[in-house]
Design brief:
This protein is α/β, with parallel strands linked by helices and 336 residues long. The protein is built from twelve helices and 14 strands. It is globular.
């Protein structure tokens, strides 16, 4: 865990602007940091996350690539092996799949393959998940693929401050990091502590809201849903704790287990399909390590096991406050 600094400069930013600021600050501090991908140069990306970086640092530091994700990733591997720190953008979550072979076969394995002699300090930025009314290939939640791949760190911020701080740490890391950016939170705004070491580091979960009756475990775009559900439950007299994982890999067992043991009940919330997923792993870990503290089986609220639906139907697919509260109601309260 990185040390948290109390006295730092703060600025109110949206998540998109916080990511932009993290890229700009990292590029200003280290000439080895490069940013590239489809339309990230003069246009500034589909979501304008890289806006202004080409003007400030030039086309050698922030530039467009061909529409070939496998080529983008292969190029990044070569750069990283030769001392650079590339930050690549996969324009949308499902657009990253052509690059998956490069990520799994090379990015994740090169350090192990070379017995530590070659590291691949690549950050793979992936705008992911739903909530924007996007069509197929634009709203996937693909975290389980990356979390299942040894050698990768997988991060999913839920606040502008974490987006800034975790991205700064990811860029500085000697290990490859898949940085999942919740698209529907790009416009969420908050005070952002600037600089390095200003937020808990990769591998550290945080309790966003204290509670005594049950623990909601979420990450990325599902954290606001968990917080809204906890607020709604409070109006009905029920106290729900909310844990924000922030980092999927490494996973913070200590914080999650302590939170679940303190309440004896747990609900995992995630947009991805439930079968063979990150939510499955969380439920299994909690069940294995907190069994004697649980008053009820761990519940999961996830997307359905279907391809992402058309925009008019996505509200059925995504976890909602009502679905979370229904799950909480099923946690065997009569046993108290």
């Amino acid at each position: 865990m990185a040390a948290v600094i109390d006295h730092v400069d703060r600025e109110k930013l949206t998540m998109a602007k916080a990511i932009n600021r993290a890229l700009r600050d990292a590029m200003a501090e280290d000439p080895a940091v490069l940013t590239f991908g489809e339309d990230v140069g003069p246009l500034g990306g589909v979501f304008r996350v890289t806006d202004g970086l080409t003007r400030e640092f030039g086309e050698d530091r922030c530039f467009d690539t061909p529409l070939a994700e496998s080529g983008i990733m292969g190029f990044a591997v070569g750069l990283a092996m030769n001392g650079m720190r590339p930050v690549v953008e996969m324009q949308f979550d499902a657009f990253a799949y052509p690059a998956f072979e490069q990520i799994v076969s090379h990015v994740a394995k090169l350090r192990n393959r070379t017995r530590g002699k070659v590291s691949v300090p690549v950050v793979i930025r992936i705008p992911y998940a739903g909530g924007i009314g996007g069509v197929e290939h634009h709203c996937d939640s693909s975290e389980s693929y990356y979390a299942h791949t040894p050698g990768l760190h997988v991060v999913a911020p839920s606040t502008p401050g974490d987006a800034y701080g975790l991205l700064r740490e990811a860029i500085a890391s000697p290990d490859p990091v898949v940085f999942l950016e919740p698209k529907k939170l790009y416009w969420a705004e908050d005070e952002v502590p600037l600089g390095t070491g200003t937020v808990p580091g990769i591998g550290t979960a945080v309790v966003r809201r204290p509670g005594t009756d049950a623990t909601l475990i979420a990450y990325g775009p599902s954290v606001p849903v968990a917080l809204d559900a906890a607020e709604a439950a409070a109006r009905e007299g029920r106290s729900l704790q909310v844990v924000d994982l922030r980092s999927i890999v490494p996973f913070d067992d200590e914080t999650v287990f302590a939170a679940v043991r303190s309440t004896g009940r747990a609900v995992v919330i995630a947009e991805a399909s439930g079968f063979a997923s990150v939510s499955s792993e969380i439920a299994a870990r909690v069940g294995e390590h907190c069994f004697h503290s649980l008053a009820a089986p761990v519940r999961r609220i996830t997307g359905f096991d279907i391809p992402f639906p058309p925009p008019k139907l996505e509200h059925f697919q995504l976890p909602s406050v009502d679905r979370v509260l229904d799950a909480v109601d099923d946690l065997q309260w009569e046993d108290q």
